[in-house]
Amino acid sequence: MNTTEDKIETTLHSLDTIQRLEVPFVLKKSITENFNTKNFPVVTSFQKWMIAASIIVLLGVNLVTIVQYSKSSKNYSSNNDKNVVYKEYFSSEY
Fold this sequence. Notes:
The protein has 4 helices and no strands. The chain has helices at residues 3-14, 25-37, 45-76, 84-90. The longest helix is centred in the middle third of the chain and has 32 residues, at 45-76.
């Protein structure tokens, strides 16, 4: 036999000695009780509104920043360079 075949056989035979792990009764009971009571965390309407407001604020800040950079890029560049907003917004020089 090749060494590769020996390794394969050894690996296959090592699976024969694996034993099933029993879950302790207390853990099983606790899991089933928690699952049956459906005591899952619920997002309240206040939290939903706060998440929506946060997303709107982030989008607004990004929009204002891009508009400011596009206005400042018109002052600094000619019409030939169309990637000025990208270069100024994402550059690491600042």
